[in-house]
Amino acid sequence: MAAPEHVPTDPNAVPSYQSPDVVPAGWTADRAAALGVAQPVGPALGHQGPDQGYALTLCHLFADRLVLAEGEHAEDVMAGAVQIAMKRASSYGRAPVVYDLEIALRVWGFLDQCDDELITARKCFAGVENPHHWSEMRSLVARVPTATLRQSPEAVASAHRADWRSLLDLA
Fold this sequence. Notes:
Elements: H1 54-58, H2 74-92, H3 98-107, H4 116-121, H5 134-142, H6 146-149, H7 153-163
């Protein structure tokens, strides 16, 4: 019976490496839709990070702690707080944790009683749960500076008691 060409005919021959006849060209990641090292940045793109949906899971921890004024809806508050929490988490390059959501709610005074001026400023939460209000949501998130979000929960609570205006960009 005949053997294929790739089978050695000498049983004592030691197999050794032989380079291929044709060496293919090198490959590079040059596809048009491929992202570079960093995520895209822009006014309507939000803040990217890993496992951001976990912030939605954490919402139930604060559902009974919310202090809402008349006309405010928990769904709008939590939708806005989740976006702010995701901004904080992405600034650290990690998934959201409970402290991100706590800071987002505390900055806007949803965990304690607050003065009427802050309640008036919180009108920007109205309707942001609706996905058609994306620009309002982005505006809401932009009102909380990254410098505020990089503070510890204790520092934010202390600063909020002293002067809540220092934590927000309401201009």
